[in-house]
């Protein structure tokens, strides 16, 4: 008979618990027979001693199995998902998900909310009037039937063991562990039974992983788990740069506007398209919908350029309660901030560094993000027209536009935004958007 003390002690003394013991522990987290102090000690033991690849997989599956697992047998399409470790001005999901659906995949995506300086896809979608992200299983099925894709919130019964462990990790300095992060993410991803997955592991000042080594380790851990024998899932990861925001907009309504413009072709956003097509190429190849990554990239790009991705996006928005002709008059219906204010370059030269984390913090301070879970957010505020790294400016040129609820907030944001830009006399080297591939 297993006990929580035994599981914790085994990890502490480098004797990895068997899969059945981790399963017992995860069930105990979900059912409540493992206490918060035991969960905290478990998390700390894993942080300090680590888990083997097999141990990580066992913990992921144990946490997945503590809740419900979705099956999509009634749909005749490969089930595809993507995961991003979170960034700033990163609206990849809102473009890639409908593009995959347009290419024949079924994408039942469970997304998260923003916390700290990073944005959350659900918050962005909820900037659309009437759109509801908390849906029942029947509604989720209807949205998928209608558009082939859905981006919805999690429910209490998806990986409840992870929810409990994550809450304890948050207050015991045990969030930063590759083993725990990978198991936590995979416990939720695998609950939708994907046949193909791609991970977008962001690296840089605006990302959760600040160094390339950390990003690589997380990418390896996640792809190893997802590719485990018997899961029927093929996965790979790209490590993508997240120093400056991926798009010139950071916030909720402002990012949705960016997405509409990209999907309708009214605005070219080369960096966003590059990351979307690279990730799409990976997951198309992983799912067998394309003959390889190059073919997959070409199919995703074609779906964006010929409007099929836009059509899927519009159908999804409407099926989720948003306006029916969102792409036609959506921008008009998005919430607009009370005031806008330009930020001007303090000197002349080249933009040599853009600090994504600071820009993300400026948006949180404006009220567009959360400091703690449960904070309400103002979808109308944010930043747009953010100048890109490498651009040449003269003193006094606009480098960003603040969307704020009032003058005081705008003045505060202006100081933070100014501090996020470094201007030098020499042009910087071009950043590598896609830094590595794992899988
Ligand atoms: N995201 C998760 O879902 N879990 C973690 O542990 C970290 C980030």
Reconstruct the topology from this structure.
Elements: H1 4-12, H2 19-31, H3 36-49, H4 53-64, E1 80-84, H5 92-102, E2 107-111, H6 121-125, H7 137-147, E3 149-153, H8 160-170, H9 178-189, E4 196-203, H10 212-226, E5 234-241, E6 250-251, H11 253-264, H12 270-287, H13 293-305, H14 308-319, H15 326-333, E7 339-344, E8 349-354, H16 356-368, E9 382-384, E10 392-393, E11 398-404, H17 407-420, E12 421-424, E13 434-438
Parallel strand pairs: 1-4, 2-3, 4-5
Antiparallel strand pairs: 5-13, 6-9, 7-11, 8-10, 8-12, 9-11
Residues 166, 175, 180-181, 184-185 line the site of uracil (URA).
Describe the 3D structure:
With 439 residues, the protein is α/β, with parallel strands linked by helices. It has helices at residues 4-12, 19-31, 36-49, 53-64, 92-102, 121-125, 137-147, 160-170, 178-189, 212-226, 253-264, 270-287, 293-305, 308-319, 326-333, 356-368, 407-420, and strands at 80-84, 107-111, 149-153, 196-203, 234-241, 250-251, 339-344, 349-354, 382-384, 392-393, 398-404, 421-424, 434-438. Helix 3 (36-49) crosses helix 8 (160-170), helix 7 runs antiparallel to helix 14 (308-319) and helix 12 (270-287) crosses helix 13 (293-305). The longest helix has 18 residues, at 270-287. The radius of gyration is 22 Å and the shape is globular. Bound molecules: uracil (URA). Uracil binds at residues 166, 175, 180-181, 184-185.
Counting helices, strands and paired strands, the structural category is alpha/beta
The major β-sheet equals: 4 strands, mixed
Give the number of DSSP strands.
13
Strand order of the largest sheet: 1-4-5-13
Helix content: 40-55%
pLDDT under 50 segments (min length 5)? none
Q: What value does the average pLDDT take?
A: 95
């Amino acid at each position: 008979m297993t006990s929580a003390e035994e599981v914790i002690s085994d990890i502490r003394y480098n004797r990895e618990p068997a899969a059945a013991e981790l399963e017992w522990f995860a069930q105990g987290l979900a059912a409540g027979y493992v206490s918060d102090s035991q969960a905290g000690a478990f998390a700390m033991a894993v942080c300090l001693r680590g888990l083997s690849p097999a141990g990580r997989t066992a913990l992921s599956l144990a946490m997945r199995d503590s809740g419900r697992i979705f099956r999509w047998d009634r749909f005749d399409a490969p089930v595809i998902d993507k995961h991003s470790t979170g960034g700033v001005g990163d609206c990849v999901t809102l473009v890639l998900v409908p593009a995959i659906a347009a290419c024949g995949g079924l994408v039942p995506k469970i997304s998260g909310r923003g916390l700290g300086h990073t944005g959350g896809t659900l918050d962005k979608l909820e900037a659309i009037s009437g759109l509801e992200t908390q849906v029942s299983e029947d509604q989720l099925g209807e949205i998928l039937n209608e558009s082939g894709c859905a981006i919805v919130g999690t429910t209490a019964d998806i990986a409840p063991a992870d929810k409990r462990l994550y809450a304890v990790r948050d207050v015991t300095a045990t969030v930063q562990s590759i083993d725990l992060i990978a198991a936590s993410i995979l416990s939720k991803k695998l609950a939708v039974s994907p046949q193909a997955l791609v991970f977008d592991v962001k690296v840089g000042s605006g990302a959760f992983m600040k160094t390339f080594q950390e990003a690589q380790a997380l990418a390896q851990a996640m792809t190893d788990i997802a590719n485990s024998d018997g899961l029927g899932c093929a996965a790979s990861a790209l490590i993508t740069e997240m120093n400056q925001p991926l798009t010139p907009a950071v916030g909720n309504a402002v990012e949705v506007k960016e997405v509409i413009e990209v999907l309708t072709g009214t605005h070219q956003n080369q960096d966003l398209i590059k990351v979307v097509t690279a990730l799409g190429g990976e997951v198309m190849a992983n799912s067998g919908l394309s003959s390889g990554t190059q073919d997959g990239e070409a199919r995703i790009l074609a779906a964006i350029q010929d409007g099929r991705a836009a059509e899927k996006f519009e159908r999804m928005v409407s099926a989720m309660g948003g306006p029916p002709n969102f792409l036609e008059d959506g921008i008009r219906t998005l919430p607009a901030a009370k005031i806008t204010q330009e930020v001007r370059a303090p000197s002349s030269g080249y933009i040599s560094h853009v600090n994504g984390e600071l820009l993300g913090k400026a948006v949180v301070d404006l009220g567009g993000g959360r400091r703690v879970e449960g904070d309400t957010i103002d979808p109308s505020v944010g930043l747009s027209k953010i100048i890109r790294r490498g651009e040449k400016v003269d003193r006094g040129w606009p480098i960003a536009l603040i969307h704020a609820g009032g003058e005081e907030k705008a003045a505060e944001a202006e100081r933070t935004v100014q501090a996020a830009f470094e201007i030098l006399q020499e042009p910087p080297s071009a950043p590598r958007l896609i830094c590595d591939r794992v899988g």
